[in-house]
TrEMBL record:
It is found in: Cell membrane. InterPro entries: Mem_transp_PIN-like, Na+/solute_symporter_sf. Keywords: Cell membrane, Membrane, Transmembrane, Transmembrane helix, Transport. It comes from Megasphaera hexanoica. Belongs to the auxin efflux carrier (TC 2.A.69) family. This is AEC family transporter. Pfam families: Mem_trans.
Length: 314
């Protein structure tokens, strides 16, 4: 029981910070303009630095080369969940302006803020390399394929071509640029001065709490009576908690990895929705209310689902 509570600390932290944004918004401190400002700070300032510092701090050239083969399963399972999400969106006739967020729930998880403490509680420090492997695949797919589909939500159902200058301009966001810069620095074995790393870390650490405050503000603007447990919501939550981890399990017999990585990848795939999904939806003009509902409901359900997966996998 104690282990489960410790593993859920990420969920408790998330709910606490969301509640700050919610309560202060209801008190009149924040409004939709504040949400837009915080979104801009997160997307254009905090997240790029967060991406750079996470890469240079957690990886080296040799470690990236060494773990590269183990990246096959995370990428393959995420791709599989992505295709299942696209099929589900078509079969369930999900609205065109919600399909990007719906599909994103199938293949993108909250792998650091919630996933890391859960895996540390369950498997200890030896799980960190596997956690970071899934994080790298998850982050790459979110800031490319997921953002592409969320941007499509804002175009009124007119899908942008996957390879075009318009798509590159929309998808090549500051966070993706930060991730690529960090990747280049690691591969070239460039060491940043300590004062820069610490400065980047201080600024980057704002990304997650500000994103959660944005979710809290957006929640305060929603009439919860209007939330319906329809196929849009139920389907997305099933994709997040059932389809994504099942895709990992389905590929395990075909892609050999260590027992630790198998357990960690399964846990990572079963985490709640990515908190930045709401921020991206807000920044590109997609259905931010739907993204907020899915983000919060997945976090709330995580209080039940994560202990269940911890018991099964552990």
């Amino acid at each position: 029981m104690e282990g489960a509570i410790h593993g859920l600390q990420g969920i408790f932290e998330v709910i606490f910070i969301i509640s700050i944004g919610f309560i202060l918004s209801r008190k009149g401190w924040f409004d939709s303009n504040t949400s837009a400002l915080l979104t801009k700070i997160v997307m254009k300032v905090a997240l790029p630095f967060y991406m750079v510092v996470n890469m240079v701090r957690d990886f080296t050239h040799d470690s990236l080369v060494q773990i590269a083969p183990d990246l096959v399963l995370p990428f393959a399972s995420i791709f599989l969940a992505y295709f299942v999400g696209r099929i589900a969106a078509a079969v369930l006739h999900i609205r065109k302006d919600r399909q990007g967020i719906f599909i994103t729930c199938f293949f993108i998880a909250n792998t650091i803020f919630i996933g890391l403490p859960v895996n540390l509680a369950l498997f200890g420090p030896k799980s960190v390399p596997s956690v970071m492997l899934y994080y790298m695949a998850n982050t790459t797919m979110f800031w490319t394929l997921a953002v592409y589909h969320i941007v499509n939500d804002s175009t009124g159902g007119k899908n942008m071509p996957l390879f075009s200058m318009q798509t590159i301009k929309k998808v090549f966001s500051p966070p993706l640029e930060g991730f690529l810069i960090g990747l280049v620095l690691v591969m070239l074995d460039v060491k940043l001065p300590d004062f820069l790393v610490m400065s980047f870390q201080y600024v980057g650490n704002m990304a997650t709490p500000l994103s959660l405050i944005v979710i809290g503000i957006e929640m305060s603007l929603i009439s919860w009576k209007d939330i319906h447990w329809d196929r849009d919501i139920i389907g997305a939550l099933c994709g997040r908690f059932l389809v994504c981890p099942c895709c990992v399990l389905a590929l395990l017999p075909f892609i050999p990895i260590t027992d630790m990585s198998a357990k960690v990848f399964t846990m990572q795939a079963s985490m709640p929705a990515m908190t930045q999904m709401t921020v991206v939806a807000k920044s590109v003009g997609a259905d931010v209310q739907y993204a907020t509902e899915i983000s919060f409901l997945s976090i709330a359900l995580g209080l039940v689902v994560i202990p269940l997966y911890m018991a099964i996998v552990g």
